[in-house]
Amino acid sequence: QVQLVESGGGLVQAGGSLRLSCVASRTIFSINAMGWYRQAPGKERELVATIRRGGTDYADSVKGRFAISRDFAKSTVYLEMNSLKPEDTAVYYCTARNGPNNYWGQGTQVTVSS
Fold this sequence. Notes:
By secondary structure, the protein is mostly beta strands. Helix content is 0%, strand content 56%. The chain has strands spanning 4-7, 10-13, 18-24, 33-39, 46-52, 55-58, 66-71, 76-81, 90-98, 101-104, 108-113. Strands 2, 4, 5, 6, 9, 10 and 11 form a seven-stranded mixed β-sheet that branches. It has a four-stranded antiparallel β-sheet with strand order 1-3-8-7, with no helix packed on it.
């Protein structure tokens, strides 16, 4: 079992930045992959970024603006979001995949005003 707690969301103007954090209840060193999804009102949940031993992946819509990273010592995954756009407004969820199991956080709201 892994509990995930996100923080760092909020209201920001277009062009601004936010950093989301996801703290895991146990070491993330052995977790296969961690990532961030988002879900905007009326839309499907979509993958934003993932990080695994082999590297990182990003949705085309956030490439060059968002960066995912992790700190093993703090059992934390971050999502640095720059040049935010109104279309980035969504609830952002942290996820961890370990073997056949997927774990989700409760989500943090990001609102970007124009």
